[in-house]
Amino acid sequence: MLQPSDTLQTPRLSLRRFTPDDFELFFRIHSDEQVMRYAGGARSREETQTIWNERVVRYYDEHPGLGIWLTSERASSKPIGVHLLNHLRGEPQVQVGYLLLPAFWGRGYATEMARCVLDYGFTVAKLPEIVAITDLDNFNSQHVLRKVGLERRGERTFAHPTYRARSYTWFIRERAAWLAWHAAAQGSLPVEGNG
After folding, report:
1. What DSSP designation does 6 have?
2. What is the DSSP annotation of 39-58?
3. Which of 7, 48, 163, 193 has a beta carbon 3.0–4.6 Å from 30's, enabling a disulfide?
4. 28-39 pLDDT per residue, tens
5. What are phi and psi of 179, to 5 degrees?
6. Other residues' Cβ atoms within 10 Å of the Cβ of residue 78
7. Is 159 buried (19+), middle (13-18) or exposed (0-12) by CB count in 10 A?
8. C-alpha triplet 16, 21, 23: angle, nearest 5°
9. pTM, whole model, 2 decimals?
């Protein structure tokens, strides 16, 4: 399981835990209108601080090995956004997700690290299934989720107020099915760890 000092790495990207010094970057991501267009809208500093406290700082301790993590380019060390493997709010399922700064869109980064996070979730964390949700109009994200091996299974609504009683596309894949798909599709993506 990912420990505080651990990272996940792909050929181009590195993922690590957020630290207290990263809050301004976290706020920059969550206050960006383009980034948050399909993720509930841009957040105020106060709203972002609440998310930070509940879904980052406390979540790491409450759910070891899961969380919202900072994603950076390996070559430049530039932060590009976040990838996550955490519980849907108010639900038992663990979801995969991502938010990338617009300057890094269109490079395949969402797909590359999401596949790595799924590999970690199924092979290291041994999760029985992983889900994802997207806005009904977010076709680019839906395409990414299919590319990383999740299956769309209709639409769902959720009770938690974060989801605003709207319908979302619902993606899911069970561990055995994803591992078989992944092996058949291209073999395991290199996952390098430092811990």
Report:
1. -
2. TTS---HHHHHHHIIIIIIH
3. 48
4. 999 999 999 999
5. -60, -40
6. 11
7. exposed
8. 85
9. 0.90
Rounded Cα gap, residues 128 and 174, in angstroms: 6
Give the Cα separation of 186 and 149 in Å (integer): 11
Domains contained in the chain, CATH given: 7-186 (3.40.630.30)
Alpha-carbon distances of 47 from 42, 99, 151, rounded to whole Å: 9, 17, 32
Distance CA 142, CA 51 (A): 24
For residues 165 and 10, what is the distance between their CA atoms, to the nearest angstrom? 36
Sheet containing strand 94-100, strands side by side: 151-156, 168-174, 129-135, 94-100, 79-87, 67-73, 13-17, 7-9, 192-193
Q: Report how far residue 44's alpha carbon sits from residue 30's, in angstroms, rounded to the nearest whole number.
A: 8
Strands (E), 101-161: 129-135, 151-156
Nearest to 55 by CA among 31, 88, 16, 98: 88
Structure tokens at 114: 């999401």
